[in-house]
Every structure is written in C-alpha cells, then in structure tokens.
Amino acid sequence: TDDQPGAFLMMADETQDLIRNAEAKLKKKGADFIVANDVSHESGVGPTGVMGGDRNKVRIVSKTGVEEWPELSKDEVAARLATLIAERLKTIVV
After folding, report:
1. Quick check: 33 and 9 in contact, CB under 8 A?
2. Going residue by residue through the chain (94 aa), what tens digit of pLDDT does each one get?
3. 3-state class (DSSP) for residue 19
4. Range of the domain at 18
5. How many CB atoms lie within 10 A of CB 81?
6. How many Å apart are CA 7 and CA 41, to the nearest integer?
C-alpha cells in the first residue's frame, strides 16, 4: 500500500531483458536499488555460469541509472553491496 515504505534493495535474477526487467521492478516495488543478475547460460560469467559458480557480474539499477560492476567473486559482490547499503543508510534522515 502507499503508506508502507518500499523495499530498500531487491534482486532481479533474469534470463533475458535484464535491465528492462530490473527497471520495471524498481518502479513497481519502489526500491532504492535493484541488483540485476543475468542468470542465463549466455551470461559469460566464469566457466560454469552464475548459478552454482563462485563468480558473478551484476548491474546496480537505481533511479539515477545503471552501474555495471566487473566480474567478481560472490564474496566480493556481497562486500560491495554491504558498502553500498552502508553509504545509502548514511543519507537517510530519521
């Protein structure tokens, strides 16, 4: 409902139309950020792909645009997401 805050960060695991679908989810759900994740076999991530592998290449979709991160280990993606969240929380006035 309109009186509930939107989600802060959401995931968009997609096999096609990655950015378009992530932007639609951003608008529909009112999230600050969408972590867009290409889980298709054609993603080109690592030898085994994203699912079941230890590497990922995500795009961060926000109202200000799309930031493409390089291919990283999933641990590195998690660390960068933690930093992104911490930086965003600093800007929230309670």
Report:
1. yes
2. 344 454 588 878 778 898 999 999 998 888 888 999 887 766 656 555 666 677 888 999 998 999 999 989 989 999 999 998 888 888 776 6
3. helix
4. 9-90
5. 16
6. 29
| Structure token digits, residue 1 | 């409902």
Q: How far is residue 27's CA from residue 57's CA, in Å, rounded to a whole number? A: 22
Number of domains, the chain = 1
Q: Which two tokens stand for residue 76?
A: 């590195």
- Kindly report the pTM of this predicted structure: 0.79
Contact of 39 with 15, CB cutoff 8 Å: yes
Report the CATH number that the domain containing residue 59 is assigned in CATH.
3.40.50.10300
The answer to the question of residue 53 being in a domain is: yes
